[in-house]
Amino acid sequence: MLTEERHHLILQLLKEKEVRKLQEFVEATGSSESTIRRDLSQLEEEKKLIRVHGGAALIKQKRSEPSMMEKSNQHAEEKKRIAMYAAKFLRKGDCIYLDAGTTTLAMIPHIEEKDITVVTNSITHAAALTEKGIQTFVTGGFLKANTRALIGQGALHGLNQYSFDKCFIGVNGIQLNVGFTTPDPEEALIKRTAMKQSLETYVLADRSKFNETAFAHIAHLNQAVIITDKLEQELLHSYKEKTSIKEVEA
Amino acid sequence: MLTEERHHLILQLLKEKEVRKLQEFVEATGSSESTIRRDLSQLEEEKKLIRVHGGAALIKQKRSEPSMMEKSNQHAEEKKRIAMYAAKFLRKGDCIYLDAGTTTLAMIPHIEEKDITVVTNSITHAAALTEKGIQTFVTGGFLKANTRALIGQGALHGLNQYSFDKCFIGVNGIQLNVGFTTPDPEEALIKRTAMKQSLETYVLADRSKFNETAFAHIAHLNQAVIITDKLEQELLHSYKEKTSIKEVEA
DNA sequence: CCAAATTCAATCAAAATCATTCAAAAACAT
DNA sequence: ATGTTTTTGAATGATTTTGATTGAATTTGG
């Protein structure tokens, strides 16, 4: 077995399981202990993994993000279910727009179809997507500090270069007669534009967003399909008349 | 069997399996070991594959350019000194372009003048800048996995929206008669364009970049000021005739 | 805290692979 | 047909990789 192959296999095994014993590599490759040790040293040198006593561990670069982190804890479970369900709408070859925000971010780990092209206005999302081996384009624009979203003329301009099969956006408010809303007018403009360029629009929203209104208007209810968790019958009924709602399946 | 046929077959086999032993090629073609070795050398020359001990591997971006992580450790001290010195060139109100790359990234912690506007094609840089409270714009474009730089038409397009007082770029090679070079032609184009839009250009380069040539040409020596560490007298002299060099002060 | 067990880095000789050279064979031009 | 160039395969010694062995370092269990 060639050195390259071994290295590849070692990293592959580590991807499946974060920490592995040296002996596991020995068995998997059929090489001697010495050889595996050398391999691990090399790969550590290349920053591909970290050696630990008795084996090796996957390298982890955690990007902590306080403002983002705080948010993502609220309704975390609900968001995760919604995101996982939304990810199932992706098809081979799709070109999609992925909006900034915690709910759309939660989609990324659950994307199974790798053969898609994604455009996003969030550098956090972009990094995560590329990490997963997904073709990713960034809109460009002014980088807003607290949400890490790209906004402004630059973002709008970048966005106008593309057309999408589907777009997935997050909102802060959903109201029967108002439609979808978000606090920042600049972000609203971006979301609206993305929807305009897209054949289908999915709005990801947990229960807390319903019957709320934020400052800036994005679009009317009938312009998107809402993906959400199980709603109360009453609420669901009143909205079903105005728009299409997909509820997370059990 | 013709040379052409063998080459084709070799590449074909590599497409099926990323890494192959030399012996596999020998058997598949019925040629001698020597012949296959010659073939592999040639194909490597043509950048169709890379040779590894015992065989050959399919070309992968990953291998041709060391990853960000890997790079950041090489010449770390020297880079830091250069970056710190370069940061002193910033003036209140400046609009600058900050190129992707580890040396330019090292500038960010040392930026004292907060009243500047920065455009960058690296999402890593953008995040760090915004974190520091600096107005930051991102070019947009395709996100390259290993360097986290934005490239392609989108990046070019975004870049064209701005003009700069100064731009700070990194390079991989500096050669007297060749000028500045970098491995990826796409990135070279971005760098070149940024320089065009800028009144002054600073190239940040540690000693190891001198008398090296990478694949893609960026610009000639006289089109930028080089910021570097202390050089050997001989080297310094030969370059001083062709361009302007700022050496890190003690 | 110590001692046994495990894991480690360093060293070395054997095996595999490598670049280089050279002469024979093949393809080519004249 | 003859001489020239190119391609090929074998032989060479150099280089790299490998697995076993050693004693040192670390972890584990009492």
Automatic annotation (TrEMBL), chains A, B:
PANTHER family: HTH-TYPE TRANSCRIPTIONAL REGULATOR SRLR-RELATED (PTHR30363), TRANSCRIPTIONAL REGULATOR, DEOR FAMILY (PTHR30363:SF56). Signal peptide: none annotated. Coiled coil: none annotated. InterPro entries: Carb_Metab_HTH_regulators, DeoR-like_C, DeoR_HTH, NagB/RpiA_transferase-like, Tscrpt_reg_HTH_DeoR_CS, WH_DNA-bd_sf. Residues 3-58 form the HTH deoR-type domain. GO terms for molecular function: DNA binding; DNA-binding transcription factor activity. This is DeoR family transcriptional regulator. Pfam families: DeoRC, HTH_DeoR.
